[in-house]
Amino acid sequence: SIYRGPVTGPFEVLRSGTGTFFNTQEIDVNDDGRVAVQMEYFDGFAGGLMRGVLIFDTPEQDKLVIETAVEKLGIGQQATLAINGSGTVAFALNSSFSIVLGEDVFNYDAGVYRAEPTLFNSPKMLTKVADMSGDYCGFGRVDIDDTGGVVFEAKLQGELSGCSGSVMDGVVYGSDPVYHRIAVRGDSALESHEFFDSILLGEINESGEVSLLTTYSEPLVEPTKVWRADMGEVRWQRFIEYIIARWWRLLARLFGWR
Prior knowledge:
Elements: E1 2-4, E2 12-15, E3 21-29, E4 35-43, E5 48-56, E6 67-73, E7 80-83, E8 89-93, E9 97-101, E10 104-108, E11 111-116, E12 118-119, E13 125-131, E14 136-144, E15 150-156, E16 170-172, E17 181-184, E18 198-204, E19 209-215, E20 224-230, H1 231-255
Antiparallel strand pairs: 1-2, 3-4, 4-5, 5-6, 6-12, 7-8, 8-11, 9-10, 11-13, 14-15, 15-16, 16-17, 18-19, 19-20
């Protein structure tokens, strides 16, 4: 069963396990008590066992009256997720997916998405934040603030960890891992953890601060560090880097520099 309640209790059963809902993998709740759950369910419309990100508001809601961020996924397509105070959901999937609604088929790339939940068995409202068409080759944890800003863990092409592994190479906030990076392997701002072994996204708060954790097995430095990044400062720094890079490319063309 899925329970909801204050930290001090008591808790209520929000959704009991049945022959329709089961095998929960991810869960989050917003300040209004909306619960986003990545779980398996039996889909009579699609004809079998499916997985999705389902939204529950009141106890024991039937499948036909709930909203979903994404649905009708294969049981092996297990999204990471987060829900903000407005009920908007961010999720990441590392494989392409299709949503079949009657005779209509909606195809989506592997990537990170922002979703406005819609009624079960209805078209989904998805906005792509990032995909694997460029330097990204995998995604991990996600979070979303109340303005809809999404931050997420990512694996990058060409890194020593390799795209087939589970280790993330950075925490970013958009489609370009250079100009949308918060912290990636090789960033001097990480000081002695510049070439970390692992990085973990914590959360983003409503002041635009992001928490991170890095680990590093180098014996001469601290094995674990916790960081806080201000998104306002990060965006300003990336904007300055972008302007400098644009001017450098312009000068290089004008003077034939290589």
